[in-house]
Structure formats: structure tokens, C-alpha cells
Amino acid sequence: MQFTIPHDHPALPGHFPGNPLVPGVVILDQVAAAVAQALPGWRVAGIRKLKFLRPLRPGQPCAVSCAEAKGGRVRFRCTVGGALVAEGNLELAPA
After folding, report:
1. Residue 46: which CATH number?
2. pTM for this one?
3. Pairing label, strands 73-80, 62-69
4. Given pLDDT bands bounded at 50, 70 and 90, which one contains residue 89?
5. What is the strand order of the sheet 2-3 is part of?
6. Which of these is catalytic: 1, 4, 11, 15?
7. Considering its fold, how many domains does the chain have in total?
8. pLDDT digits 0-9 by tens, 66-84
9. Is 15 a catalytic residue?
10. How far apart are CA 65 and CA 33, in angstroms?
């Protein structure tokens, strides 16, 4: 799945005027949508591990990939042009 946060997204004001960054919670919302799309019948129930490695700017296309892991978990990666933006492990529960 790929997403792009528009420059006029309501979460951007205050995330740094003149040099906007997409807040982590907005990225995580897109990750949760990607998990729901990739693994129907499951939802994100918690965060086991999460790393933000570089900023995501409004207007940048970001790809989310996820792979089901053992024990009701899923691994995800967010990349922009091949560069890793965020990665982690999420706990799943039946939807």
C-alpha cells in the first residue's frame, strides 16, 4: 500500500511551521489501514516495537509493507524512495 499525506492535512499545523513533518500518529494510522487491507479479519491491538528513522514530509509518497509474524503479530516497514522511514512490530487481534 502507498499513501501520501497532503500539505493541508489538519495534523500538520504546529508540526513545524515553515518546515512541516508528518506526525508519527498519522503514519501509524496509515500503517493500521495497510494491515487491515493486507490481513482481513485482523486489527491492530498494540505496539510491540516502533522506530521512526527519518522524517516524512507532506506530499512524499510513502510505501507500507507488512508481513504476518508468529503469535498474532505483524512486522511493518514504511519507505520513501527505498529509504526506511519507520519500522516495527504490532500486536493483532480479531477484528
Report:
1. 3.10.129.10
2. 0.92
3. antiparallel
4. very high
5. 2-3, 62-69, 73-80, 83-94, 42-52
6. 15
7. 1
8. 997 777 899 999 999 999 9
9. yes
10. 11
